[in-house]
Specification:
The termini are far apart. This protein is an alpha+beta fold. Helix content is 15%, strand content 43%. The relative contact order is 0.18. The chain has one domain: Lipoprotein localisation LolA/LolB/LppX (outer membrane lipoprotein receptor (LolB), chain A), CATH 2.50.20. It has a 13-stranded antiparallel sheet with strand order 6-5-4-3-2-1-13-12-11-10-9-8-7. A hairpin with a 2-residue loop joins strand 11 and strand 12.
Length: 246
Amino acid sequence: MKDSLMTLLFALALALISAIPAFSLDGTDILKKVDANLQPESFESYRKLINIEPSGAKREFLLYTLKKGNDKIVSLFLSPASEKGRATLRLGDNMWLYIPNVGKPVRITSLQSVVGGVFNNADIMRLDYNVEYNVQNIEDGKTEYVLDLKAKTAAVAYDKLKMWVDKKTLVPTKVECSAATGLLIKTLYFKERKSFEGALRPSVIETDSPLYKGYQSIIAYANVKKKIVADEVFTLEFLPKIETIR
């Protein structure tokens, strides 16, 4: 009788275990960690943006950038001389360009580019990925997670992203950006991890595009430091005075 009872209890335990669903990865949690590992929530940095043409000709821009929270980012052009004093501001989905000679900020869109080249304004003024995208699917590979992301709204520059994430560091290595039709617009490559604010973060982002064959654009980060400034800095009225924050 005792043996029969033990057998029954063991069978019931096996049935309960088999009824429990297998552990599923939380894609949203992974994406939030990716964002935290790419950059601090609020920070300042200097960025060099390099556009390379098929001929090998290069054009370089130096920008001072401030980001606050998940919806505010402002950048000031320091060079070349022809661009010095220009500034860009992004608040959520809204973007502006300030040109000193014009004196009044003008609206710009995410798909335009204030510097030309392969990077558009959404790339240069990128918000956290989890702010703009939902995780639709996740593949658990041997060394990487592969996330399929879908834009939350039509205002986002790319309708779909496919992101390869290193499992050990939870930092992306590659992101493919596509239109709603599935057309590949560009690929981003995250390289050269360096220690910024206590974490190893990619210091270089490269991009190429089948739509711009032979062209390449690069963003290199330096002096990334946590910094929190007043919300006033992220206003149209303050754009002419960004230099005073450096």
